[in-house]
Every structure is written in structure tokens, then in C-alpha cells.
Amino acid sequence: MKKIEAIIRRTKFDDVKQALLDADIECFSYYDVRGVGKTREGRIYRGIVYDTSSIERILISIVVRDKNVEKTVKAVTDAAHTGEIGDGRIFVIPVEDAVRIRTGERGDIALYNAEQEK
For the domain 2-93, what is the CATH code? Predict the structure, then answer.
């Protein structure tokens, strides 16, 4: 199992969400986050441009079975890509175990409904 964390532009979230659903990745969490990167976004207020040191992004967190890692990364990459600085980053992190609280199932089986795969 792997945890995939993607930091993307807020404007690309709907595209990434649809790409994940199209790739049959239906369970993920997302958060509004702020960070500091090479890109600086300027805010205009009453005609004055203010440089902000923090950038608003979306952090998507997904835990998938090993067989779904590449299609998940590809879905996010394809949907979030603009070709400009600030497109974001994807991190793939090993996951040691998962437990479904309702049933106590552990490992890969805790990530999906076995009944749906029949």
C-alpha cells in the first residue's frame, strides 16, 4: 500500500477530482493548505499589489493498493498539469498497515469492498 499526497493548484482541483473518479479512485481526502514555494502570488487591493509569501493550494491525500499507484499518479499529473511554475508536487509514501474500524480487516482488504470486485 502507498499513500499518495498531491499538492495542486486550487483551480485544478475539479479536474483532478474528476480524473481520479474516472480512474476508479473514489476514496480520498482533500484539504485547503498554504505553503511557500518559488512562485509568489500578488494580491491587488484598491489598486495596490501586495506580495504574499504564502500560496493557497489543495492537498489531496489518497491511500491505494500497490497496483493502483501508477494510474493514480498519472491521473493527478495529467489533470493538474499546466506547464507553468507552481503546478505542484506528488509524494508517494509507503504505508505499513491499514485497519477498517467497522470490521477489523487489515491490509489491502481494508481499502476496498471485496464484494464489489466479484
Answer: 3.30.70.120
Contact in structure between 54 and 65 (CB atoms under 8 Å): no
Element (H, E) at 57: strand 55-64
76 φ, ψ (degrees, to nearest 5): -65, -45
Which residues, 6 or more positions from 53, have their beta carbon under 8 angstroms from its beta carbon?
36, 40
The residues, any chain, with a CB within 8 Å of residue 58's CB and separated by 6 or more, are 7, 8, 9, 10, 13, 30, 31, 32, 33
Is 9 in a helix, a strand, or coil?
strand
Q: What angle do CA 24, 83, 33 make, to 5 degrees?
A: 65
Summarize the confidence of residues 55-79 as an average pLDDT. 96
What confidence tens digit (pLDDT) does each residue in 82-93 have? Answer: 998 889 999 999
Which residues lie across from 50 on neighbouring strands? 43
